[in-house]
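Regression check, NDP case 268:
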Amino acid sequence: MIQIDLTGQVAVVTGGSSGIGYATADLLLRAGASVAICGRDAARLASAEAKLRAAHADAQLLAHRCDVLDANDVNAFAHAVAERFGRTDMLINNAGQGRVSTFADTTDEAWREELDLKYLSIIRPTRAFLPMLRDAASKGDAAIVCVNSLLALQPEPHMVATSSARAGVLSLTKSLAVEFAPQRVRVNSILIGIVESGQWRRRYETQAQPGQSWEDWTGELARTKHIPLGRFGRPEEAAQALFYLATPLSSYTTGSHIDVSGGVARHV
Ligand code: NDP
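Current build output:
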């Protein structure tokens, strides 16, 4: 196994209080990085912080309440990271959730909300942390990694707004990669399929048949959704791809993406 020591490096994970973001924060702490996480719900954030501190005795960890759609919150988060750690080497834009709706049942307001969420959850943190990332890049490696979905390349009609926004965000990450390349800040993304996480746990609670186990419910969905590997992904599996793209392990990769969909992608 490749070992990498991130001691002295600082990683920021938006939406680090649950699912993929939490697993990514855990992995980065394990590699010795100082990590800052954020989320909107103070209780969920405090519980994630407690779990991470229990798992990593000497964790250099900052948990900050922040809604990535609120510019003041995001600026305050960047300020708190600067005060606490003095630098940012890696920014993982992960915060968000999907929207299940067809064209027929998506209102103008829902379209605006979805586009706001998908774009501004990347734009605002990127703008706020860019000065620190540029500074880190002038001395070594610095990277932004965005959690995107395979829907960007393979839209689903029952998630029309999310699919459309995801395609736009894939284009955005490419543009950012080109614009920031002269400053040596790399920008990449992961395209995920279905990953077990908080949002799927919540769907299970409302949609499963009485008495149906989580394993049975996800197994049946994996079959009906024709996932070639036959199961949902685990947050750790998405986190490992994020880790690769965030760290110098991928120092010559920018403007690219990794597919973490269990083989769902149909294109060559
Ligand atoms: P979870 O619900 O487990 O985690 C989402 C995290 O994001 C939580 O920490 C949540 O905390 C935080 N969050 C959500 N909205 C905001 C916001 N506006 N500001 C700050 N934090 C926010 O879900 P996942 O781990 O699955 O989601 C991670 C990312 O992966 C999301 O962007 C999601 O859209 C994407 N994705 C996930 C897929 C999957 O199958 N799991 C598929 C495709 C994409 P809080 O609610 O307290 O703010």
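Comparison notes: The two ends are 29 Å apart (CA to CA). The pocket of NDP is lined by residues 14-15, 17-21, 38-41, 44, 66-69, 94-98, 147, 149, 192, 194-195, 197-200 (CB under 6 Å). No diff flagged against the previous build.
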